[in-house]
Structure formats: C-alpha cells, structure tokens
Protein 1
Amino acid sequence: MPQINRQGTVRFGDAALYISEEGLGGSWEERTAWGKKFKREVFARIIQQLNRIGWTVGPWDEADQYKIIANNHRTCSKGEHLHALLDLSGRCIRLEMWQSANTPTRPDHKGRYESNKEAVAPYLLRLEMERTRRRIRDYLCNVFIGYTFEEQSPGRGSRRRGLKPPTAMEYLNGCYSESWHFKGDWQAYRDANSSPGLSSCFNSNRKSADGKLLEHGQPVYFFDRKGRAQTGIAHYNINNMWWVVSGKYAVTNEASFELYVDNPGDLRCKRNKSLRRKRLESELNAAVARMDYRRAEVLRDLIWPPGEPVFCLWHTEHKLYHCAGFSGYAAEQMDAGKFTRAELQGWAKAPNQIVALGKRPD
C-alpha cells in the first residue's frame, strides 16, 4: 500500500529505466533539502531493490576521476555479463543496463555504447533486464502515492522489443503521426518539393546506392550490420533516411546510399570487411594479452600481408589511440587499432600522429 506522498513519472527506454519528478523550485536551501530527501527516499530504495533481486551495487567505477559527482552514481552488476549504471541528476534518476555477451558493433566498454542494447542482447539477459526494471517500477508505484508509469506510444520513442512490441507498420505509423517533417503522404510530399529550388535536394535524398531514385513503398535490397543481403519495402523517413520493413516486426533505418533498387549481385557473399577486420584485431589483442603468441601470429598474417609494417594512430588532443576502423579510442597501445601506411592516408595530419608499434607518441 502506498505510504509516501511523492509525485513522479516512471518510463522505460532501451534497456533503461527513467524516474523524473517536479519540485526543484524555491531557494537554494529548499532545493538542497528537496534533493537530499529525493535521494534518501527514492535513490536509496532503488539500490535496496537491486540488492534484493541479486544485483551487486558498489561505488562508481569512475569515482576517482569525477569525485564531485561520484556520490550520485553507482556501478551495478549481475553475473558475468550484465552491467548497469545508476545515477541521480537533479530531479531525475536513470538506471542504464547493458550486457557484454554479444557486442557486434561496440565491443569497447563491455557493450555499453551499443546503439540498440535490447536488440543485440541474448534472450535470457534481455529477460533479466526487463524483469529488473519491472520490479523497480512496480515497487516505486506501490510505495509512492503519486508515481505513475508512462506507457510509450508505438512511435519513434517506443521500444522495439518486449512481450508485445508494435508491428513494423504500427511503429512507422506512430512515427509519422509524431513527425513534423513527413506524415506518410508521399504524393503530397513530392508536390511540396517539386519546385526548382527544392527538387535537387529532394532527389539527392532519394538517390540509391546504384544511382536510381527511390520511391516510397518500393522493394529494395540492403545489407544488415553483419553484411548479409536483405530485402524489404522502403518507406521515407527524413532527409536521406528511409525505413525498410523486412518482416512483420522487422524495421531498420537506412540511408538512401545504402539501398539498392536493382539486385546488387552475389547475394550469398557477405559485405562485412570492416566488421571482420575489427573482430580479427580484437582476437589478436586478446591472444597477445594471454601470451598465446602462436595464435597471435596466425591472426596477424590473416589481417596484414607478411612483412608489412603496421602502425598505431595517436590523437594528440584526446591523448588516446584510435581503435580498429578509426571507431572509438583506447588508452593502451595493445588495445589500439593497427594500420598500414596505405590505410593511414588522409589521417596522418593534426591532431593525429602516426606511432610505430612499441614506440610512444611524442
């Protein structure tokens, strides 16, 4: 039964839980007192609930670096692959969860910065994340009289995962209903952009990878994040971005230059050169870290031609190395991306500096 009178809203995000309240008005002393009470009554209760359902909650990992805000952050984990960050900022609390078992595009930071955390999470880990935030939501809404759960519409901010996710077309219709740019009426949109001053921009936003002009609702070919050929129906989104519906629930957001009107050919061949390179370099770094030099030698010869010198790329402003594919940064040379001279063309200029393996930057 509710016992505490607080007004607030609970929302779900992508593997995340958000709590927000109103009440930061008044003098500095009043705001400070309100913040302390908010932390004591809500933030502390969330920590208590996490401990009850098997999570380990401890000090923030970055507390030494950001001491002034460390007391409002907690690092959480459950098992080997499930991680979370609980933080309080003003009148808002956020519980952000992620997993390190499957990180196809962002293996750095244990997968924290994957763009679609729920979509890439293994089934059981996704269920555990869902269970965690539902338990906390139910607890808060029962304890606090004025707490409500804000359901998400099937539009742009909705979750694409869950027990009853919206279908692809429901999701698109929700996006169009919320959009100020395109409402789903292709003919009206074409007419509005048919003037000489707008037509060139309009046509460039629908130019496909094979140089054709895309039409709203037409079949297209594209390649997913793993480089596998897919087919679907293209629906216009905004600028040069297009929704592609490839199943009852499957919808992705692709740029026009990633779509093909005609068959691109060799559909059984993956276009995953960049992803392959990142994975091989990751395996190479792991082999070196555990001193498995025979495996490291095999992987090295798979990545670069034998005898080809390789280098790291140091960012002089960030004081960090570029990772493989020039995506992200690493503090240690062992975790950094390795590149040939040819691959570094165009990057060998300020604020970057080419560094030979085993050497330190200037």
Note: The chain has three domains: 4-149, 168-258, 273-356.
Protein 2
Amino acid sequence: MKRRLAFALLLPLVGLMLSIAAREAGLSGASEWRIPIAGFDPRDPIRGRFIQFRYDWRVVGDPAVCKGAACGLCLSEEAGEIAATIAAPGTACPAYIDVNGSNIKQFRAATQPPEFSSRIFVSETSAPKLEDMLRREPMVVVARLTRQGRLVNDRLEPAN
C-alpha cells in the first residue's frame, strides 16, 4: 500500500519534470528576436497581469493568404527593421512563424495590411514598472522562434 501511495504522489511530479524538460529542449535551439511593440493594454489584475501588445513590424505580402484558419509569417531583418512576410502554411523560410501555433491574433481593417498582436504575462511586482516604461519609451519583446515555427514571448525590454 505504501508503495502505491508513494507512486501516486510521485507520478504528477515526474510528469511535471518531463513537461518542463520537453519545453526547455524545444527552446534550446530557438533563435532570439527583438521585435518592436506598440499599443499595449494591461489586463486581468486578479489572476496576474498580461500585457497585450501589437507587433510593430512591417507586414508585406498578400493578405489573402491568411484568410483561413492557418497563417504563416517569414521574419527577416532589413536595415535594422523587422519585416514579416505573409506566407502560406509550411512555407520554407529561415525564420517561419506558425501564427496560430504561437497564439498570435491577427486583425485587419479593410484597406490596411493585417496587424498581429500577442500578450505576455508579467508578475505583479514588475507590472507597474513595465507599464510606466511602455508609456514613456519604445519597447521590444524578446521572443524565441523554435524550429517548429512557434514564437514564444520571453520578456519586455527598452528598445535601446
């Protein structure tokens, strides 16, 4: 009976450790991108704080490619500016983002190119400082792009 109890208590811990190890292994080979952001909106102070923002990159390509549920972007850096080229899902490019797999939301005005937004969780202690910095100076999100095309927001930093 004691062995069963010990096994039952250790099983969730082992599962958690395996989950953390799998996530870290997936991010170990990820490339790091510093992407300018704009238009933040702090939300949900009861369950923590998420800062919602819009990626401030130049969007190029045919927006009709992103009409369905699947959408992809190819990131590139040109003269210090990040460009996101709209691409069909599974397109081969050096820095491919699976928009849906990365929890990136897209919205589009009728005559404008699409815009892409995301959010990042910040702790209660750092949220007021970050909100103040977002109001006063340009910021970037430091994100990791995995080989599978998942863009993972890591932290916010001043653009300079």
Note: The mean pLDDT is 83.
Protein 3
Amino acid sequence: DLNVMTRRNRMAHTVERLPLSGEMRIEQNVGTTLILPVGGGMKVFADSVSSLGPLDTLVLDRNSPKPRLQPEGQGLLYVIRLHAVAAND
C-alpha cells in the first residue's frame, strides 16, 4: 500500500498505479508530479539519461521536460500528482 496525505483545502492529489511494462511517458499537467517505481527500477530519458532504483522518486513540475521512462525489471509504478486548491475566501 501507498498512502498520500495532503492538507485539506490547501492541496489535492491523485494516485495512479501502473504496471512496469514497456516504454511510457507521463503527463505532468498539474503543479507537481512524483514518479515512484516499486519492485523494479527504470531508466529516465530527458535532457540526460538517469536511473531510478526501486523506491527512488522522480519529482517533476509542469515546466520539466516530459521524460521517457524505460522499465528495468518488473514491478509497479506510482504516479502521484499534487496541485494547490483555490483559496476559500
């Protein structure tokens, strides 16, 4: 299980759970996107090439280059999207 907690009326989030299989691209159309592989790692192709091990987290904002992700092994990928909630006046 993975639990994400955000402060009510300040932030909201979504969590997507995907199998690590084949090349993928993740849309980051919100404030911050966290990419967390579990059970296997992945190569990250953006401005440069880097690797994420199991439980390493890639943090992207809406201005980050859209990375290409190549799984290394089997497991799950959690995509967590965080965004601010409009102020309550």
Note: The chain has a mean pLDDT of 90.
Protein 4
Amino acid sequence: MLILGCLVGVTVTVVCIRALYPLAGRLNLVDYPGGRKQHAQAKPLIGGLALFIGFTAAMLSLPISLIGYRPFASAGLLLVLMGVFDDMHELSPRARLAGEIVAGLIMTLLGGVSLYHLGNLFFTGDLTLGWFAVPFTIFATVGLINAVNMLDGSDGLAGTLAFVHLGLLVILAWQAHSFVQVRVFLLLMSAVLGFLLYNFPFFKDRPARLFMGDAGSMFLGYALSWFSISLSQLPNGVICSVSILWVLGLTLWDAFRVIIVRLLAGRSPFKPDRNHLHHLLQEAGVMPREICLLMGATSVILGGIGIVGQRMGLSSATLLITYLGGFCFYCFLVHFFLGRDSSVDQEMA
C-alpha cells in the first residue's frame, strides 16, 4: 500500500501540474522576470498547489485513520491558500506573518505538537520549556517556513533540499520505529518528486518549467517543522532535538548567516537581498543543477553527522556544540571563498 500511495503522490502531482499549467496565466499565477529574479521568461507558480493536492491524495490512500492529521491538514491548507493569494496579489509581510502564526497556533493548540523537551543542552539534564513551549514552537515554525522560502531562488533548490530533509527524517523515524511517520514522510517525498520533474534543472539548456511559489515553500516549511518537532518529542527521548538541527542543517545555516549579516550591516533582517548561498554560487558561475547537487550533498552530510552522532550516543550538548562550531566554520568558508558579506547592501531594484 505504501508503494501505491507513493505512486498516487507522484501521479496526482504531475496530473495537477499538467491541468493547471495552461490556466496559470488566467489565474495570474505567474512569476515574471525582473528585479532580483534570474529567469528570463515568465514561469507558472503552480508547483506548490499541485504538490499539496498530490500529497493529500496520497494520504487519503493510506489504510489508516487520519483524524490525528486534521489539524496538520487544516493549517497546511490555510498556508497553501494564503500562498496562492500571495502569488496572485502579493500579501503584505504582516498578513503573511499573521497567517504563519495562526498555523503555528493550530500546530501547538489543536495538533498537540510543541517543543517541550529540548534535551540535555547544557550538561544539566533535560531542558523543558513548560508554558514557554507554545510561543517557542510558533517562533521556530515561522522561522523554518521563512527559511525554506528563502531557498526558493534557484531552479530546483527548495524542492531538492526539502526532499533531502524528508529523506533524513525517514531514517530517524525508522530508527525510532515510528513507522506511521515513515509512511507520511515518504508520501510527501513522492509529491515533491512529482514537482521536481518539472522544476529541477536536469540539463544546462533546460531551466525549470515552473516554480512552487509561496504556496509550496510555505507548506513545505510548515510540514518540515511539524514533522521535525513531532519526531523530536517522541516518548523516552528516542530522537534528540539537536539531531533535528543537523538534519535541517544547511537550510537553517543559510538563513542564520543571512540574518546575522543583515543585522551587522544595520539593515532589516527581513529585507531581501542576494546574499544567500545560492545567490553567491550563481555569481561565482555555478550552474543551477550543480547548486542543487552541491547543497543537497552538503545537507546529506550534515544530516548524517547528526544521525550518526545520536546513534553513537553523543549527548545533546556535544551535538549542539559541534553544530554551532560547524555553523561558524560554514560562515568562514562562505566569507573566505565567496566574499560577499561586506557588500550585502548590493541589491537589484
């Protein structure tokens, strides 16, 4: 049944893409070139809506009760609809933030998914957040949604890294014997795969045919947050929270570095620029396909460090120290080899 569900996820996503493609112009779901954008032709923004429908169809094919996933589906639908509206008419940042906070509230209050236990981060025993778990979870969720959105600036990148992150979560869920979650993660991977068939730059002379849009990046960011947090809060601390940080490593590192650079330059951390890793690689002459492969492989390595470290019995504190050390080394490498931090104010109008 799992194989059938994955086939449903890929097939329905592809069918939805084919059905929505000719309608994108009439629905104003099109991303036009200009400004900071690199594509030379208008691209449909239908990938996110298609993969959400594909994932939903795949979930409905599972022979299990989905009552526990109603809050997830409700919040996911909210973000997808908000993302579609944003792609069509451009929502204000405040409206987007409000919607993301509502989705976080649904996760914590209705879904019961919160970061209560952070693990032994300071060699003093398990750190629990108590009442602060709800606002902290919402903050983390909003942050991850926007981190994934920040990746959506190079053909195939956001989908590729989401696919990698989900694959790493499958490994963790399998180790924890959480086989229902394994199924769900694989079904979302199948929908993302259907999207990547049209978005990944397989050939140098064939760019992406469409984009996921805000609907896709917001939903994938939310799904990764929900799945990661729920996995890290399993009974008996089977999966530690810091190993999840490693699994999401490069996506978080890129967002952290860009925000820090903007703040050091006296700019708003939310004001877009071209200082993300994929932008710097583009300016260094790296092709989109190679960017996806390089950043995807790096994400596999980082996630592998977290998974193996946990398997070896390393403490959460040790994993956290090495994670922060790795982030500092990453910032040094980006600055030393790509050297754009000092010119963060460069923007294309």
Note: The chain has one domain: 2-112+126-343.
